[in-house]
Amino acid sequence: MSFIVNGRVKYDRAVKQPSSGNIMKHKIENDYLQVIFDDSSGTFSAVEQITGKLFLTDGRLEEVRETVKVDSVQDTVFGSGMRILLQSSDGSENSLELYPKLPFLLIRGTLRNAGKDLLDITKRVPAIFNIELDAPVSQLQTMGTGGLLAPGENPGSYFFLTCADPATRRGVVAGWLSSDRGAGVLFSQIKDGKVEFKAQIDYGHLRIPAGRTARLESLAIGCFGDARIGQERLADAVAGYYRIKLRPQTGVYCTWYAEEHGGAGDEFSTIELADFVARELKPFGLTVIQIDDRWQDGPELDGPTRGFERCRPGGPYPNGMEPVTKALDKLGLTFGLWWLPFGRNHAAPDYADCQHWFARWSSGDVMKTKAFGGTCLDLTHPEVRDHLAMLSNLFRSWGIKYYKMDGLWTGTATELTYINDGYIDDKMGNVSPFHDPLKTQIEAYRDGLHLLRDNAGDDVFFSGCCVSQNMRSFYAFGLVDSMRIGPDFNHDGQGLRTGALRGSRLYFMNGRIWWNDPDPTMVRARSGTGADPACSNGVTMEQAQLATSWVSLSGQFYLSSDWLPALPAERIEIMKRTLASHSATARPVDYFDHPLANTWLVTDDSNGIRRNVIGLFNFHEEPLNIDYTCEKIGLDAEKNYHAFDFWANRMMPDFRGLIRDEVPPNSCRVIAVRADEGHPVILSTSRHVTQGIIDVRDEKWDGRKNCLSAVSRVIANDPYEIRVAGLADGGRRWDAVKAVIADADIAAGVGVSLEKSSELLRVTIKSPTTRDMAWHIDFTA
Q1: CA–CA separation, 108 and 94 (whole Å)
Q2: Which pick of 20, 260, 449, 663 has the fewest CB atoms within 10 Å?
Q3: Per-residue pLDDT reduced to its tens digit, 169-198
């Protein structure tokens, strides 16, 4: 028996339990978890260290073990750890692993083919285990890709599944660390009065030659006082495993839904649009213009044409992409292109001599999917790979720096199952062997994305689309920068609500694994036609604020698809206040309470000052009543808070302990809150709905001089208002004497003015150029 302390993994090689005769138990632990394997029952259990409570019981591994031992293990990402290693006589292994800085138990395995024939694995069930939480089973909820559901009603979830007590948020988070060759899924059910989780890997066909070994996917399981944070840590672990470094998020214009010049737009309208964007919206964060379907050549057979090697003769870009690329380059904008990389049509003349390029069903028929996708390419075939490399290089030569890659499920050689979120038995594996029969469908898909990246260049932004066509395309971790996490906008008449539903449940992936893309937000005020009739209707001001504020505060991928030059000024103003992205922490407050979270808290303390913004979102047709304790929201229950309603442009009553409000139908409130600090503080700014998070730094209060100072990032010709609260804090009345800016700023034409009231001081700065502005306000008490 030996122990290693000070953050290192501690373990018992074999512990003989005196009360149980010769029963042998093997134990490992780190600062988060203790894991025990019981030789007599062949089961494992896990304890949460901070509480000392069992949270996982009766864990069963798939492989029968002949030997069990504890030894050290080395991981290229997580470093040195310890494991309980279970080995079988044929050379297969399972291991239960802990690492010092990882709050998860990892279950890993290898499978060896000890026979003489090829071993073909369709699926594996590496682990089944029970969950123990301090709540009745009837009170627990599961959250997965299918949404918030009772454990016995969840159809199964791709990638992750969480079981939590909504009253406390304590819960167990399980998820697949890796998806290299298989699609990991998780199921829950109520069995013998307990919640049982089953972890399954769908391979379709994992073919292991005689004498060879295959490494299976890695499962992570942890217990957390707040399961939301556990899911965030899971996403962090996946990001570490795949060494994910996301390309920066930016605002994107997509031509598809525009009421004028929709579809792919055209050469002249796209240049007109670019001029408008560069002048009005580029300073606020819109920097990409992406043209959509209908630019490309090819016969119309079943959905989009697929002649991506050339623009359609007589089409919207008769001179090719060069004129548009040059125009956008001059304006400092990025040109983006829609295409469908992994699907073609075997009946098109271009592919008459290329029938060997296509994946086939097990019947031998060409894998022609339902409408839209076309025919799935065999991504393991050298000629197909050469074709994709050629296209990626071609687009690069056109100056394309942003790929919108639609129909990605075709790369997995599976059926279109639009729309699904919870697990569906799509008969993965109903496919003949690829050109390389040892490649699985997920492996071929990931290899295809790797190939595109290798040829596109490291500076090209990859936007994936979309997991709702078949959730197998979900497993693009580390290979796309953004991913459409829901179906097409308004496909069901629900507008952004459908995207928000999925963006909320997958919020923890956003900014860690990829940027969640809920499809464009609409701010248009009038009807139009557009390429998609579902998007012809305009929205109210309140709905426009709701849609854009939710995307902005939650940090999701910001897309626009209105014909911007025709929008009224007040609609453009909404975009200006929501376009920029932030790096603060955004969490849904009621994540385990409602299928679509209605309350979010955004927090930032990166500058030594804690800023909070509460978003209240009502996507429904009836009023929404909000009644939360500060503790539930994530605020200090003992502090008094000032509050400012961004869109109403007014102070709200101070609150303490509780926050109550009524939000009208199809509208929102975006409320900056700041704790009473006994002196004036910056409560809000007009720059953006985050109200100081992206534009204010170095805020300081000098108690000796009664001076409030900061540095603000202001945009050229955009009046910038600073809202200062706390004028009656600390038992004194604070009166602003003057606002001061540098002489150099004054010489450059910057102006500053004050507007006083009893509860709020408004300071307005107007600058002819975009700049960082140092300023201070002198007070008397």
Answers
A1: 6
A2: 20
A3: 999 999 999 999 999 999 999 999 999 999
